[in-house]
Specification:
Helix content is 45%, strand content 14%. It is of the alpha+beta class. The protein starts with a helix and ends with a strand.
């Protein structure tokens, strides 16, 4: 069978097992979020998927409403200090539990278990991460943004198991391009098996080089 068939079968089996196995945890998280934050407990965010198709990525809601704190020189990067993140949300993010609802995206065929993380629609529409950089680097980043759309976006990926922090944009680009060029069923299995260990090691999911004082505040955004 082809890689595409193996990958889809792996996605369906893995997502189904993960959904069934974690349903009690979903119930607990939903109850806690409902009590501490109120509804809704799920957050939907427009992301760019395969061949530029837009879809609603699902997460457990970890933030209150308020102005967005983002780094303008790279996509989907948040400042180290964000007052919108709730105490429960911090816990969910620390162990990547806020990402669990994305198994539904996988079952719907919008995502894969493994692939480049999907970029927000607004980051491609207004790419501040392409401003004030040399022409060669701009071309490389455009290639990265284009090539990553040739595969389904993933719940986890090569960058997630190799990064030291979210501010490492260079490693993000290299990892995504490497996955697109070398993807295989064996690599997918390796990444999935390596992901729990990467989470338990405590990979910092926020940029380490930003502080409360120099966090860039941009336009108002929804809770994530």
């Amino acid at each position: 069978m082809s890689y595409a068939i193996w990958k889809r079968a792996f996605d369906l089996c893995g997502a189904t097992l993960l959904l069934v196995g974690t349903l009690p945890l979903w119930a607990v998280i939903a109850c806690v979020l409902g009590v501490t934050q109120g509804p809704p407990v799920l957050f939907r965010h427009r992301r760019v998927g395969l061949r530029g198709t837009l879809f609603s990525l699902l997460k457990f809601r970890t933030m209150r409403d308020g102005p967005s704190f983002r780094l303008p020189d790279r996509p989907v990067s948040k400042a180290a200090f964000d007052p919108r993140v709730t105490p429960v949300g911090q816990l969910l993010r620390r162990f990547a539990l806020d990402e669990l609802p994305q198994v539904l995206n996988v079952l719907r065929g919008e995502m894969s278990l493994v692939g480049p993380r999907p970029l927000p629609e607004e980051d491609l529409a207004q790419p501040g991460w392409l401003a004030n950089i040399p022409k060669a680097e701009r071309a490389r980043r455009l290639t990265w943004a284009s090539r990553r759309q040739t595969v389904l976006p993933g719940v986890t990926g090569l960058w997630q198991i190799t990064r030291n922090d979210e501010a490492d944009f260079e490693n993000w680009i290299v990892s995504d391009l490497a996955y697109v060029e070398r993807r295989s069923f064996a690599l997918d299995v390796f990444i999935v098996l390596s992901t729990p260990w990467a989470v338990l090691r405590g990979r910092d999911r926020r940029p380490r080089h930003q502080s409360k004082q120099n966090a860039d505040t941009t336009a108002s955004g929804p809770p994530m």
